[in-house]
Amino acid sequence: MSQLGQAEARVLPMRAVATAQTPMPPLIGNSSSIKAAIALCDSVAQSDCTVVLTGETGTGKEVLAKYIHARSRRRTGAYVGLNCAAIPETLLESELFGHVKGAFTGSTDRPGIVSEANGGTLMLDEVGEMPTCMQVKLLRLLQERKFRRLGSNHELTADIRVIAATNRDLDAQVKEGTFRQDLYYRLNVINIALAPLRERRDDIPELANYFLGEFAQMHHSVASRFSDDVMSKLRIHSWPGNVRELRNVVERAVVMSTGVEITNVDLDAKRPIGLCGRYVNFPPNGVRVDEVEQDLIKLTLEYTGGNKTKAAAMLGISLKTLHNKLGRMGYKKSKESLGIPA
User: Do 96 and 84 form a contact (C-beta atoms < 8 A)?
Assistant: First the structure.
């Protein structure tokens, strides 16, 4: 298989395809900025004009793109998304436009995402990362709605609506010469900016509660509310990862919770690591390697009922090494139980 063929096999998961009748994604928040963004989405949804969604990573640009598609006359068509930053430059043309048999070693006929999005919406995420050589071909697609598959001279027509998203300043990239000015003007018909979460803190409680309900159901948790202290922490955090970070924090807290209320203990608990059926919760400031080793030794000995020979075998170390480690931990060699320190 050629290098291009191998790269193609690796990149397939980078494509996101939603089939006909894409469900309407929930748009959560009552801040003036999110309301303005939603209103603009509603205004442009029925047209086929190109839209650029701008904002920091994790602000919800893909959610807005799916919302526009679901509100459009193309909602019965496919919504196809591609992360331009995740595709190797050598493969991007093939991924977008497809290729014909013989285009490269081992290739067979394969349509690209432009063909898959025909009659629907093509969403190009991180469009600011697109190589200059591909920007020319994207410009032609936008202007003429025509393209050619790699290795073919046959011209095809695309009936698509294009939505682009970026966390970069495209205007600055144009001035730097890394993004074509003509493509910028062709893409930037409608610009919808999403404010970072730190600038719309009033949306945090509603978002957090929505994620709480979602993950409580997903993980079969009884958690149904946040303590006042936890909600205060959520509201004042700077959220550099924006809504995506908030979503991850809430999911982790739900997984770690044992009661109806999410507490500071649940919020501060870090990613669980299973050890002999138990969990070690990493504190916010991290943990030393020797502390993890000590916990592992204790749990293993508990699991073996204090049998050090079995514990050493499970840990993959000699009995002598285990005794030495126990000595450094402060336990007498003569004691089989770890409950009696030296």
Answer: no
